[in-house]
Amino acid sequence: MDILKLSNFNVICIAENEYDFQIRVVTNSPPLVCPHCGCVANLYKHDNREQLCMDLPIHGKRVGLLVKRQRYRCRECSQTFWERLDHTVDEKRNCTKLLLSYIEKQSLKRMFVSISEDVGLNEKTIRNIFRDYINRLEETLRFETPKWLGIDEIHIIKPRCVLTNIEERTLLDVLPNRNKETVVRYLSRLPNKARIAYVTMDMWQPYKDAVKAVLPKAIIIVDKFHVVRMANQALETIRKQLREGLSPKVRRGLMNDRFILLKRHKELTEMDKITLDLWTKNHPSLGIAYELKESYFDIWESDTRQKAFLKYHDWKAKVPEELQSAFEPLTKAMANWETEIFAYFDHRITNAYTESLNSLIRVMNRLGRGYSFEALRAKMLFIEGLVKERKPKYQKRLDDYEHREYITQCSTSGLLSV
Ligand SMILES: [Zn+2]
To answer: In angstroms, how far is CA 293 from the centroid of its own chain?
Structure first.
């Protein structure tokens, strides 16, 4: 039973302490051919050295293989060479190939420092293994070009462009910045670009410019979420301005104002309504601002583009002069992005998925302080984008296993039979 998966080695002895196992091994298949001149069976042992390489942890302890490595000399050409270990060992990283592939998979999910502690390789080596691995993944894996593309912003150290497949709710990529050139380069490289029929985005001019340049036929839709949010922001501006002009005593009367004002009409409790009425009586502009916010949200319930358009222009005419500056970011955006904002009523697509990515990023930022953008991007891409399956449950039935019969040999540690 080769539970150690070391079929190319013979185990000489196993030592164990509180943290580690050390397994001394020798190779079991000496070379037959000289790598220099190619002659057969004319080699003799020269000298040897011990080489440590790490293997998969056992029983939660780190495992080091102390390999007795033989050097040979050739009688024919009298050159020397070390026996090869590359059937089992990755010489670049000084660990077994099994450990290497274990680290690769773990490095997407866990902190490098924690893997380092478990396996006994230093953090820098783990980082390098991770980097090689994601480079390899990037070369081989391609996502299908979506019909509905989402372009949005997420915050990883600074604002980045995030691209999603809206129908599938999958992540396509995260770009290092939100510049037009960066987005153009990404879109230009997509295969089957013509497949993209709709693009939803937040109101960021470089995104619009990039899409118009590369995907002139795609219909651009501003994500509703980003538009209605601006009504809340306008109300927030008015609330803050109002508070600034009040004495501390009056200000105390506006307890929890932000919380209540952000609620939709239908979410207000009876108590909220009484409070809101009182505020409106004392500060009429706050009441008007609240109603404007609410009626702006109502526009989004319209069933056609035309109704929404008319409702909006009615709404705009009702904004009193003293509140216009607070609503200006919203009204300006409505003017600059009119086509794309009202396109929502013909194609009701929103990219709510980005929000769930933002919560994933918050988790990762907490876990992975000190990670570079590239590392966080790869973690997101290859966890969120592709590797959605989880490890299956532990199987109790023996039938589900690859079967090997063996007789237990007595081993001194009581741990392994080899
Ligand atoms: Zn030779």
So the answer is: 35
3-state secondary structure of 354: helix
Residues 238, 300, single domain; the answer is yes
Residue 172 token pair: 């396509």
- For the entire predicted model, the pTM comes to 0.71
**Domain span including residue 23:** 9-137
- Assign 95 a pLDDT band (cuts: 50, 70, 90): very high
Among the three residues 137, 159, 176, which one is the final residue of a domain in this structure? 137
Quick one: 318 and 368 in the same domain?
A: no
Residue 32 corresponds to which tokens in the numbers above? 């037959």
Whole-number Å distance, alpha carbon 246 to ligand 1 midpoint, is 94
Distance 303 CA to ligand 1 centre (A): 84
Strand order in the sheet with 219-222: 170-175, 158-165, 148-156, 198-201, 219-222
Percent of the chain with pLDDT over 70: 92
Note whether residue 417 is domain-resident: no
Nearest by Cα to 278 from 248, 256, 245: 256
Q: How far is CA 362 from CA 240, 254, 381, 388, 389, in A?
A: 28, 32, 15, 19, 22
The DSSP H or E segment spanning 339 is: helix 338-342
Q: Which residue has the tokens 């190939």?
A: 97
Q: How many CA atoms within 13 Å lie on the side-chain side of 10? A: 6
Domain count, the chain: 3
* Distance (Å) from CA 32 to ligand 1 centroid: 11
Beta bridge mates, 49: 69
Is there a single domain that holds both residue 330 and residue 365? no
Residue 63 contacts residue 51 (beta carbons within 8 Å): no
Residues 58 and 203 grouped into a single domain: no
CA of 51 to the centre of ligand 1 (A): 24
